[in-house]
Amino acid sequence: MVKKKPDPHIDNASSPEDHTDTEMDDDHGRASSLQQQCQPPVSPRTAERNALLARLAELGTHIDLAACSAPPVDHSTQPDSNTVAREAKATDHDRQSRASDSDPESSEPSSSSSSRSYVRKRKHKRKYKRPKRRHHRSDGDSDGDSDARPHRYTKKGQDPPKKLSSDKTEFATWHFYIKNKFEDDEPLFPSDKYKIRYALTQTESPLWDNLRSWLEDKQSQNAVVSWTSFIHEIESFLDVPYLVVQSRTQVETIRQSFTEDVSELFARMSVLWLQANMSLPDKLRTFRQALRPALQRAVALVDDSSLEDERQLLDAVRTAQHNLEVYENHQSSSGRFDRSQRWRQRGSSRRGFSASRPFGAHNRSGARYQTPQTPLSVNSLPTIQPRNPVAGKRPPGWSGDWFEPELNPEPITSDEQRRYLQRANRCFRCRGTGHLSTDAVCPLSSRNSAPRSVNAVAAPSADKGPDIDPSSTSVPQAEN
């Protein structure tokens, strides 16, 4: 409510009408203030003009409102209340910014001022690079679709080295690579449909033509094709069942040659095992019977039930083969030394004959020369060593158990003891290791019991004349 100031030229005494006019003015002031409160906020320029007019009215100056009124306002272009509020807020913000630039301490907003609102400065966002989306493996059942495959996936498996056409001997190798591919890249093959599609890409004519026609027949019949039926169709087209029988027959009859290494034999049999689809007991059995007899006896003590695969038996056979080679090399070197010594002794024993006249030569008259009848001395007779060296010492490089020969072993009384010696590769005669009772290297062999001699002549007795041993080589008499 705006109160009018009393005019100093008018008397202070007032009439009742004046009091009535004052009350009416107060009522009009209250009504106008209420109307102003209900109206939307006005712009700052309009507020300043209204304040100026009110001030002039208080001073009693009568000014024509029509002369100083604003031009007519087009309500169609007049801003609404929200626009006016935003302009007022922007004006307050500009004033506050200018005040903060002039006085930094007064930059804080005042709690008493309700018309001004504190605008918080916006922090600068840190720019960061969005991480790449990575694929997470899933089983495909999370979304309810069992055939779901990842969109981005790096292949890890290896394709077959050669496409399958019509050679049934290549089926086992091809099938091996295909199964490994399915295991390594499992997310790419969630169902049999994708497996069959991939397998078709690894085939070529005429197998590919046959499989395509077979699949078209199944689709025309609305039949579901499984991976097992697909493999059966390939086996029937290539006649793989007959290959299994043929490979099994061949692996049962294969034998190790004398110059063939154990590793070469194992490589040959591995291909046949894969084609015949043989189990582990059959692999061990066929590998044992394909070895040479000496190697079979060497690995007779190896228990098949303790082996996890056929390669463990291969390692045992390799060790036995190494021991046999070391033993044979040792025996051959000893035999060469004995043979050279024996020939030297034989050469010295023949010095008793005429070196200038060969034995049995004729003179000019046609008569043969007579060989002297004087017997040779017993001490000058050579003694022949056994034909084969005795296996009494462990050869250098031997791996495994070694049993020395026994001079007086106990006789074998049971078949169980005989089987034990056979499995341990020991001799039945001397119980030694590395040879048999029929071998000449046995110390108790009959071949080594009595050493032979060349031209052995009995020593002359004191009472009788010299007697010639009838078992010795007779000396021919000269013809008359």
TrEMBL record:
Biased composition (Low complexity): 107-117
Bias (Basic residues): 118-137
Polar residues compositional bias, start-end: 75-84, 368-386, 470-480
Region (Disordered): 1-50, 69-166, 328-397, 445-480
Biased composition (Basic and acidic residues): 1-30, 86-101, 146-166
Protein name: Uncharacterized protein
Organism lineage string: Eukaryota, Fungi, Dikarya, Ascomycota, Pezizomycotina
